[in-house]
UniProtKB/TrEMBL annotation:
InterPro entries found in the cross-reference section: CP2, TF_CP2-like
Species this protein is from: Atlantisia rogersi (Inaccessible Island rail)
Start and end residues of each stretch annotated as Disordered: 1-21, 146-182
Domain Grh/CP2 DB: 1-182
Protein name, UniProt field: TFCP2 factor
Biased composition (Basic and acidic residues): 146-169
Taxonomy, superkingdom: Eukaryota
Keyword Amino-acid biosynthesis: no
Length: 182
């Protein structure tokens, strides 16, 4: 099953720049898992021949040009976009966070993923593209019933906290909010 994620809106560079290219990736957020990430992705590929971890939902996306889905990079999509137009990309994550955890008797917490978008300008003759901007966010992906249950239990936990503790939590948003990566 596909699990759509709300749009990832991206800041626009100065209008005088040529058409930029962005790459969206889903990676493991936890640093402990990053060294084994490629091995984990290869295992996922082996268990789901022809499957992809990440896709662009073209009908819902706005202002993207020439989307590219690489057959070997299952967790990456790329596209060009026009800086002078409103641009939003909707992505679909086709795996759930618990697919990368050791199976127990239920109640697995799931691996947090990071969705990262890197934007590049056009490089000169023989020069690599210029890195313009990077932003990311942490997500966990669950099956719809599991996600509803998880949101309910998380909301209940937050509501039980004293007011000063509740202020430490980030509010919910309609779309995914990305933080700049330095």
């Amino acid at each position: 099953p596909s699990h759509p994620i709300p749009s990832l809106s991206h800041p626009r560079p100065a209008p005088s720049r040529p058409v930029p290219q962005s790459a969206v990736r889903v990676t493991f957020h936890d640093r402990r898992l990053q060294p084994s990430e490629q091995q984990q992705l290869d295992g996922w590929r082996w268990s789901r021949p022809g499957g992809r971890i990440l896709d662009i939902d073209i009908p819902l996306s706005v202002g993207i040009l020439h989307p590219q889905i690489h057959p070997t990079l299952l967790n990456t999509v790329e596209f060009l976009w026009e800086p002078s137009r409103r641009t939003s990309v909707f992505v679909q994550v086709h795996c759930i966070s618990t697919e990368f955890t050791l199976r127990k008797s239920g109640g697995e917490k799931g691996v947090p993923f990071r969705i990262q978008i890197d934007t590049f300008g056009v490089g000169g003759k023989g020069d690599p593209p210029e890195h313009l901007h990077s932003a990311s966010c942490l997500v966990k992906v669950f099956k719809p019933k599991g996600a509803d249950r998880k949101q309910k239990t998380d909301r209940e936990k937050v509501e039980k906290q004293p007011a000063p503790e509740r202020e430490k939590f980030q509010p919910g948003y309609e779309t995914t909010v990305l933080a700049e990566v330095r």
